[in-house]
């Protein structure tokens, strides 16, 4: 049986406050998944890449499972999460510029 150990995580106040992202672009190849967290400004004409997180395929699978479990618990407590209705805001055509 594997021994459990406690891991101490260091975080500055800025990281603890978090950032709001309203778009995530996901890309993958054989060795990794890249999650680009983006904020699209209210005018819908411009956005900003907040951070890019690169994980292994195994870790991406664990993230997927953790999100599914937490969404299920959230909906059990607060009711179904409503996504945009059909005909709602169009999905933006997003591309990166430098």
Description of the molecule:
With 98 residues, the chain is α+β, with helices and mostly antiparallel strands. It has a domain at 19-78: Transcriptional Co-activator pc4, Chain A (Roll). The chain has 2 helices and 3 strands. It has helices at residues 13-17, 57-78; strands spanning 23-28, 33-40, 47-55. It has a 3-stranded antiparallel beta sheet with strand order 1-2-3. A hairpin with a 4-residue loop joins strand 1 and strand 2 (33-40). The protein is extended and about 55 Å long. The model has no long low-confidence stretch (mean pLDDT 89).
Give the helices and strands, then pairings.
Layout: H1 13-17, E1 23-28, E2 33-40, E3 47-55, H2 57-78
Antiparallel strand pairs: 1-2, 2-3
The backbone outline, from C-alpha atoms, is: extended
Q: In CATH terms, what is the architecture of the domain at 19-78?
A: Roll
Return the string of H and E elements: HEEEH
Quote the average pLDDT.
89
Extended strand count: 3
Strand content: 15-25%
Helix share bin: 25-40%
Distance between the termini: 50 Å
Largest sheet: 3 strands, antiparallel
> How large, in whole angstroms, is the Cα Rg?
17 Å
Number of discrete helical segments: 2
Q: What is the CATH class designation of the domain at 19-78?
A: Mainly Beta
Kindly report the CATH topology of the domain at 19-78.
Answer: Transcriptional Co-activator pc4, Chain A
Residue ranges: pLDDT <50 for 5 or more in a row? none
Taking strands numbered 1, 2, ... along the chain, how are they ordered across the largest sheet?
1-2-3
């Amino acid at each position: 049986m594997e021994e459990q150990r406690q891991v101490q995580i260091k975080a500055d106040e800025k990281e603890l406050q978090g950032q709001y992202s309203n778009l995530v672009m996901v890309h993958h190849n054989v060795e990794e998944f890249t999650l680009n967290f983006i904020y699209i400004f209210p005018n819908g004409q411009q956005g900003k890449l907040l951070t890019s997180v690169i994980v292994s395929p195994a870790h991406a699978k664990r993230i997927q499972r953790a999100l599914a479990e937490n969404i299920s618990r959230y909906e059990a407590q607060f009711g179904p999460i409503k996504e945009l209705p059909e005909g709602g805001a169009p999905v933006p055509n997003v591309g990166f510029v430098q």
